[in-house]
Amino acid sequence: MSNYLNCACRLMVLCLCLLAGFTAAQAGDIVYLNFDETAMFPASPGSLLLKATSLDVPAGTSLKVHLLRGEQLVATSKLDFSRAFQFNNPGDALQVAAFYPGEVGESQILPNVTLSPGSADLDAVATAPQQYRLLWELSAGLVGRSNVALLTPAITFIGLKVMAFGAGASLNDQKPGSLLLFHRYSSNASNSQREDTQITLTNTHPATNAHVRMFLVAGSTCQVNELQICLAPQQTTNFLMSDLDPGTRGYLMALATDATGKPIQFNWLTGNAIIKNGGQTLSLNAYAVSKRDGAIVTPGTDNLAELIFDDANYDRLPSQLAFESVPSQANSANATTLTLYRPLENFASGSMSLTAQLTGRSNSAPTSQTAGNVNVACYADTSVSNLRLSPMTASNLLPSGTSAWFIGTVADGKPLLGVQLNAGAFSGGFSARPLAYATEYRIKIPLAAVSCQ
User: Fold this and answer.
1) HSE (side-chain half, CA atoms, 13 Å) at 197
2) Residue 284 to residue 171: CA distance in whole angstroms
3) 154 — phi, psi (to 5°)?
4) Positive or negative, the Cα torsion across 187, 244, 236, 266?
5) What sign does the CA torsion over 189, 192, 197, 203 have?
6) Taking residues 380-388, what's their average pLDDT?
7) For 91-122, what is each residue's pLDDT tens digit?
8) From CA 410, how far away is CA 407, in angstroms rounded?
9) What are phi and psi of 54, to 5 degrees?
10) Where does 169-317 show beta strands of DSSP type E?
């Protein structure tokens, strides 16, 4: 049997060299692979194997390969490295994932390298391969990933095509992330029918549970309350802020952690806030921030874990914002509110004091410009009609039938986030558009284990 497998491995290496070669995958890569639709699958496969010719991973690395049917998880193969491991041999290949028709126990494929195969109906895969795909996740390091799969016992090589990448690393306001910022929530303790917020949170991962710590920051005081949530794969939950934080207006930060509460890379969280305020209802997507590296954030001696937003650890945060298409406030046709805030630097005992400048430019007369300062403190709602601007007032900048846009900036170059709300002829709201990003920002959070009860 061992000679048979050794022969299979040598044959696979030869075919890999001839067919498709290898593709480098690095920490944080989320890659979806489809089977070549033109390939002929053997009947009754005995195994589905994936190989690699190079690895350079630190201790504690895990490589997970999920077999999916559509979006439904079928099975998972996991490779664990208890020590740092390096392998680079173009003339050979190392098995890194395996799926079998029945249950197969874990095995030590090399010293300190453990493979836990997945169990799946491979006959179903061979019959309708176009319905299946592989999801590749590497927690740390670098792997030279095979672009073919090997099926046994009739040695068959099936090409693998990269069809999509996980959205967590992309730069847009629709992606999932390891950290979500809900720019606004509010509720009325005495009348939730007129003012309330429904928060929705989703774990989009097809196979992995999510531990989430949610920090609710009161805008008037900077007081922080924490809520902990555990989500099964592809589970969504929602809750009303009138139940959790009645009579409060502020912002919310949701953070992916492990069970002990330490921040981790888990770029699979999405969310939104449906805000009911008076006669209007609007929906705002949460601002998603990816964690770029795979390292767990461990707390220091002060029991605080520090999140670094620098495009190396987490995505950078916006430092300059655009509030677009602000309508005229004349004759009470519209009432526009610009909300600004900066996340606390310390969620254990923090406060915030900053001044932002709002510069307005008329859309009908681009050279017309006026500016004013807003004291943000923890969180600021500013009515456009009440802005103290110079040299023009808001009414002069925005006569009836016109519109303008505002740029929000801070002198220290640190983060600034916000949302634009409008009630009136054009009711609605949306997050302010980032124009520039802070070079670096750090947020500390206290360590607390996540309870799933």
Assistant:
1) 28
2) 18
3) -75, 105
4) positive
5) positive
6) 93
7) 677 889 999 999 999 999 889 999 999 999 99
8) 10
9) -150, 140
10) 179-186, 195-203, 210-218, 224-231, 236-240, 249-257, 269-277, 280-285, 287-289, 304-309
Long-range contacts of 13-18 (CB under 8 A, 24+ apart): 13/53, 13/91, 13/92, 13/93, 15/148, 15/157, 16/51, 16/53, 16/93, 16/146, 16/147, 16/148, 16/157
Q: What is the pLDDT of residue 9?
A: 41
Using alpha carbons, select from 223, 218, 163, 162 the residue that is nearest to residue 186.
218
Which amino acid is residue 187, in one-letter code? S
Per-residue pLDDT of 139-178, as tens digits, reads 888 888 778 899 999 899 999 988 877 666 666 667 899 9
- Tokens representing 453 are 């009860």
Which residue bears the tokens 């060299």?
Answer: 17
User: How far is it, in rounded angstroms, from Cα 36 to Cα 17?
Assistant: 17
Q: Long-range contact list for 368-371, CB < 8 A, 24+ apart?
A: 368/392, 368/397, 370/396, 370/397
Strand, coil or helix: what is 44? coil
Q: Distance between CA atoms of 259 and 210, rounded to whole angstroms?
A: 9
d(CA 417, CA 378): 12
Weakest mean pLDDT among 28-37, 253-262, 337-346: 28-37
Rounded Cα distance between 393 and 133, Å, is 59
pLDDT 10s digits, 45-89: 999 999 888 889 999 999 999 999 988 899 999 999 999 999 887
Q: Which residue has the higher pLDDT, 22 or 341?
A: 341
Nearest to 265, CA basis, from 182, 172, 166, 347: 166
CA distance 280 to 445: 35
Measured in Å, how far apart are the chain's first and last C-alpha atoms?
48
